[in-house]
Amino acid sequence: MAKTLDLNGVTLTRTFEWQGNLMTRPQLIPASDRADWEANRSWLAPTFWDPATEDTWLCSQTIVVRSAGKTILIDTGIGNHKPRPYIPPFDNLDTGFLKNLRTAGVDPAEVDIVINTHLHADHVGWNTHLVGEQWVPTFPNATYLLPQADFDHWNPEGDTEPSGGMDQAPVFADSVLPVVRAGLVQFYNGTHLIDEHLTLKPAPGHSPGSSIVHVSSRGSEKVIVAGDVFHTPMEILRPDQGACFDEDHALAVQSRRRLLAQAAEQSLPIITGHFPIDRAAVVARRGDSYVIDDWVSIQ
């Protein structure tokens, strides 16, 4: 399924790969208080949360941006046939993601840029696909933009044991190192200008190199593609309560608060990596807190 948001000539198409339950609320957001979720049950359930089971509902997706004559992908999902036994819902998937991309008008050979906002398994999977017994780049003519900090943190071929743990070793083996060896990678640090409409900006905490993408149109319309700064809408209402996947909780909280402050001040819709909806969140400040004031539909 593909949905498109047109920002006066710069388009963002939301292409879903997977949707389902990954964890319960207390597993995903360990510091969360059920009372907060109950207070927001009217809109959280059933789309984001099942009060009876405490299951949280997430998705995996790619944002296709067409800007300045180029086709750009923001994150590449989980991928097919990737061994992920430590994340059972992601283990050896077999989805129609490439068909979904083609339905959205994207030929893999015509993709110009692939942005990995960070290097977790569910954001780099379609960097490669299996041909015979080899993992080869899915987008052979693209430049892959990878955060240097994440690469250094988890690279199993580095000088030291990967500080992020060995779960990342298979991710590097099948989804990261093949594009590096193919000579398709450009590493980025800090703020990175992609073109006149797209800018990568650091939002560390979820991972060392975690980033967001600011998208602006030829006019005044803007949107933020937030990667994994948020996993559930409750992290907007309670930015101090982060997901269990955040590498550095305190830094992740700072990134969430900084993004929310800017988004509220400038009325910037936020497209998230894992909200299982075809809408972007518009946030507003209420005293020292934030609320979702509106949703922008991706038609």
Automatic annotation (TrEMBL):
Keyword Cell membrane part of the UniProt annotation: no
Keywords: Hydrolase, Metal-binding, Zinc
Listed CDD domains: metallo-hydrolase-like_MBL-fold (cd16277)
Keyword Cytoplasm part of the UniProt annotation: no
Highest taxon listed in the record's lineage: Bacteria
Domain annotation Metallo-beta-lactamase: ranges: 59-274
SUPFAM superfamilies: Metallo-hydrolase/oxidoreductase (SSF56281)
Protein family per UniProt: Belongs to the metallo-beta-lactamase superfamily.
Record-given protein name: MBL fold metallo-hydrolase
Source organism of this protein record: Streptomyces spinosisporus
